[in-house]
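REQUEST ID: PR-0412
SUBMITTED BY: lab tech R.K.
PRIORITY: routine
TASK: structure prediction, single protein chain
INPUT:
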Amino acid sequence: MPKNLVIVESPAKAKTIQDYLGHDWLVKSSYGHVRDLPSKHMSVDIEHDFEPEYEISNDKKKVVAELNKSIKPDTLVWLASDDDREGEAIAWHLAEVLKLSGPKLKRIVFHEITKPAILSAVDSPRGIDKKLVDAQQARRVLDRLVGYELSPLLWRKVRPGLSAGRVQSVAVRLIVEREREIGKFKAERNFKLSAQFATKDKKELTAQYDGTPDRAEAERLLKLAASDKFQVKAIDKTEGLRNPAPPFTTSSLQQEANRRLGFSVKQTMILAQKLYEAGAITYMRTDSLALSGQATAMAKSYIEKAYGADYHQFRTYSTKTKGAQQAHEAIRPTRPERETAGADAGQTKLYKLIRGRFLASQMKPVRLSRTKLSIAGQKIEFTANGEIIIFDGWLRAYPKSSLKDEILPDITAGDRLKLTGAQAQETLTRPPSRYSEAALVKALEDMGIGRPSTYAPTISTIIEREYVVKDAAPSQEVELTRLELDGQAVTETLETKTIGGESRKLMPTDTALVVTDFLVKHFPEVIDYDFTANVETEFDDIADGKRQWNAMIKEFYKDFTKLVKSAQSVTRKEASQARQLGNDPKTKAPILARYGRYGPMLQRGDGDQEDEKPDFAPLPPGATLDSVTLKQALTMFELPRTLGEVDGEPIKANIGRYGPYVQVGTTFASVPKEEDIFQINLSRAKQLIKQRRDSKAKQLIQHFDDGIEVKRGRYGPYVTDGKINAKVPKHTDPAKLTLEQVQQLLKKKAQA
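STATUS: complete
OUTPUT:
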């Protein structure tokens, strides 16, 4: 039996490391944390210094048993979880659960999974750093307190099933405030002028007017240009340098992979984790820009061999992020000469991105020759700009589409130019862009909120819990004027253009609007940007041994509980953020847009009188609580529309919780998104109902009394009584099931 047991977090990492160590070593995986705070209880002892009450997870009991079985009296245990606070906490939990201490326990860390790095780590073990454990424990306890105190409050005051979190709620607030900023934005119209000139060699040259005039001024300037004489007034040539970006940190990798490759933050981290575990890149959770001497030496050797000595330039980068873990390196390939890596296309693309950025960071700048031409008449002046790459430098390793030659014709000062055309294109000022995942990560990082390991789970959480949707932002068609010079006259044409429609943007749901308003009003300190950033600094102080974690939590909780107590008196009506849109012209009842138990809705009548029962209607498709108008709301109260009859029963068109539908009796058929529920006629409704009934008939295998049925489902045949669904066992013919057998399957499922 091997006398050395190495415990890492993942089986992929274990396999790679096992290959580097001899027969005296056994490498096993803990599969992440082996214990945590139980999810069903707060599990923090507030009366005793906020001591956490950990337990071994049910799915990890077998893992712990197997690890214990591998530890003999003479076994030396090496805890090799990641070198960050989370990894240190995993090591500490393992030591506690496996009862490891003293000379039997070694803690080792490494930033890349290569044989030299593993052997070097074994040569320099250390103990568990309790300060790092305390910092992680403080984060875990604080987040548990916030979540377990705020979430039940949201259930009672807003809607069951909602959740709140210290970082997630701040991230949602950023997205909500950006959306409202966009909603308030008023676009301004102006014009951009451009002109075309012919040189004496009949080469064409396009130049721009410096300014954004209004319609009248644009037309005046075009007429001035028509009667003017132009020549090259001045030529200004300069040489510029474009330096490479530093190697990747976690957040900059997430941003660049999102921009260049279209990867989500979560996807990037999954791919990077696999590359790290395979030994292709260094540790991928880091906020450090540092590179080891070995790394820069490897880069120098490769660059000089692949591109030539003229391309290499030794560079160092300093990390400006507060609280950055300087012991780490930036993300880089473990062997720069390895041009490709990864088990699938996604990993390969990400590896090439990481490798290219690393090599570029150790290369000479791109040299550019920039030319600016001033083209002057007696009444108006234009400018043309050109740029030529005279030395490609780091672009050899890390091409960038925005850097390319823009060549101007060969020309000298004083040359006369012939005006061949001029235009003025109307433009609209743009509102602030909605956040992409990359932009949100950058905003959080710039504000000091969260740390590298928190961005991916935070974004995943707010999307999964339906506070945010990631989709194409709405677009709209606008008419823009184009003015064009035609001889001495100016002609006008109207062009229809689509604006907006940005892809993969983060947009808040109505749930996010209501919850954010509630939290900002009643818990301003908790989701304050500065407060959230300062909490991260306090975690850093705990990690540096400058502060006790229990004292930090106690100070926070003292004020937090006062806010929770105060918010208990808020009524559900107040929390729903009801907005009065106006009054119904017929009934004079107020029309409200508000958040109800099942989400956003419209209400007619305030329900304050005992004998008054309000009417309810859904929001129009595409509208939000902030944007819905009285006119739209009144239309929704016309639903359901009765279109006619089918087999003596009325057929209705309506909008429900899951979208527009038509209904006959107990048959409901969804209306496709592209169809307007107010334009659906009887013929189309009958067609949809027939399609639905035909589909249900194909699904039905058997029907028993009491509504029990055997059906074909997406994942195979199943039985149902309308409430409980149970799979039909494999190798069982669903058409031959008896009522007794079906009842047994349902009973077994109910007891599971």
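NOTES: Residues 578-636 form one domain.
REVIEWED BY: pending
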